[in-house]
Design brief:
homodimer; 318 residues; alpha/beta; UDP-N-acetylmuramoyl-L-alanine:D-glutamate ligase; 9-stranded mixed β-sheet; 4-stranded mixed β-sheet; 10 helices; 13 strands; 25% strand
Chain lengths: 318, 318
């Protein structure tokens, strides 16, 4: 069984939307990523940090998904990372109300010995300094290193981010962050620029407008599954990354072609996360539901363009 | 050879962008649609109206593309429809500077006898009153009636628009217009509502984010070809509609499945229009270029998701 190590936050989130409030729910990139990956056939190991207020039921939830938590430090006398945010009618807009880093502020992980030779390493959104230190603790280079980041790190720790980008295989980032990081104004120009910074693969996420996968000479587009209704997008990007890594850990095929399917797997998992607050929907999926939605995805994009040239004019454009 | 009749404006456009100005160029929905369709194997017939200032070189351009202009009224002592607009760095935003309807104001076409039994009728963006009158002049119902409209008609002539929607097969509109017309806030909810208004097919265009084709129980997504750079999007929607109808006129297959390929053909043609001002790029295509870009499109979206269930966890989600 292949091994995936996920480094990222565990958190309490408090989400406000025009249609209601979540209360304190389980959140954090590692929570979404690990649960998403858990539906695939692999071993999942999380490196994170929580306070004494992190509920036993969440430890139990991860355990019930066979997620190894040896790498999660518990600081009994401190508090878990807390984020409160507000969404508006247009779900693409959100406002951070409170960010209490709490234990996350001192996160400087020592990677457990049994985590130092993973097949895949997912560095979820965190300080690039922490991300870099984790890579350096590996005994051998993972087959695939995936990194997620956000505008905050691009603005405040660009130099450190550029350093870690040289070490990784795949960067996932949203379109606005891609423009910010590259200084370019179109997706393709941005992708070209970012691929020069180190990673050989790049995924630019466009939220409800889907995602683009790039290598130096290839490009693949995957739409988001168009749902009748999106409840709340918190965690969709982390779910996507976790689903993608989970899928990739089910074979030794790290090619662009196989990454396409991984992008679809990630999109499919993310389409569940947005249906409810927090990890509620993601934590209770059936494989049959996942397979059904993969079929829906295939149905949404498949076509059979006629191979004949008889459709063209006999005179114009010759 | 199947027949396509296109009803729409011919115009002079004057386009200003951060990177330059077009000067007075050939524009109007019928110009883009007819040129796009002309690369397919069909007979194209245009119903429109121009003033005495409409240049001979444009008549010649259409003739050289085998586009029949018998249905184009020329009012020698009046002026052609004129539109001036300004685009900003974000090409999705544009501002209309001048709209001189000129001859278009009195457009009340009599459909030539030879145009009254087309296979496909494309009612490009125009007053729904004119669109309705044209349908009523047909000797027999066309196999496919495609209608394009815009926010202006939704706001000012909703009742007339609703009447014409009952007569057509396929409506193409953009996402913002779909929200406006349906009163819904998500694409899928909007589509469901609009399909109740009459058309059995609906295409919602999302500009650089692609297009969605809907029937009552099916959905298909086609991305826009991600170009390194978009010069100017004027005419992209009209090109899309023309390319779509041109493709559909090359067979007797009016199924949802074949419409998918037509959406791709339309997207491919539109990807050329945005590369230059006006019809310049669209008017001088080679079939080999079009075929190459169809291949690019197929390459952009094709994948082969593993059919095995071995990728899934043996325990989670059972």
């Amino acid at each position: 069984m292949r091994q995936l190590v996920i480094v990222g936050s565990l958190a309490y989130d408090d989400i406000e939307t025009p249609r209601g409030r979540s209360g304190r729910v389980l959140g954090g990139a590692a929570a979404y990523s690990a649960l998403a990956a858990s539906y695939f056939d692999l071993s999942i190991n999380v490196i994170s940090i929580v306070g004494g207020d992190f509920k036993q039921e969440f430890f139990d939830l991860f355990s019930s998904h066979n997620i190894d938590l040896q790498g999660v430090e518990v600081h009994q006398h401190e508090k878990t990372f807390y984020w409160a945010g507000k969404y508006y009618e247009d779900m693409n807009q959100r406002q951070t109300l409170i960010t209490d880093l709490n234990v996350l502020e001192k996160f400087d992980p020592t990677v457990p010995d049994s985590y130092r030779e993973p097949d895949i390493l997912l560095l979820a959104n965190l300080s690039p300094v922490v991300q870099f230190k984790v890579i350096k603790q590996m005994n051998r280079r993972p087959r695939l290193i995936v990194l997620d980041t956000m505008d905050f790190w691009i603005m405040t720790m660009l130099e450190e981010l550029m350093q870690v980008l040289k070490e990784i295989d795949l960067l996932t980032i949203n379109d606005q962050e891609a423009y910010m990081l590259s200084g370019k104004r179109t997706i393709r120009a941005a992708a070209e620029e970012i691929l020069k910074m180190g990673p050989r693969y790049l995924i630019i996420k466009k939220g409800e407008h889907g995602a683009l996968l790039f290598s130096k000479d290839k490009m693949f587009f995957a739409p988001a599954l168009s749902l009748p209704d999106i409840f709340n997008p918190t965690g969709a990007g982390d779910t996507f990354a976790g689903g993608l890594c989970g899928f990739m850990a089910t074979s030794d095929d790290y090619s662009f072609e196989n990454l396409k399917s991984a992008v679809i797997a990630g999109s499919v998992l993310a389409s569940f996360t947005v249906e409810k607050f927090g990890t509620e929907r993601l934590a209770s999926l059936k494989q049959t539901e996942i397979m059904q939605r993969i079929d829906d995805f295939i149905e949404l994009v498949k076509f059979d363009f006629p191979k004949t040239s008889h459709i063209f004019s006999k005179t114009n454009g010759q």
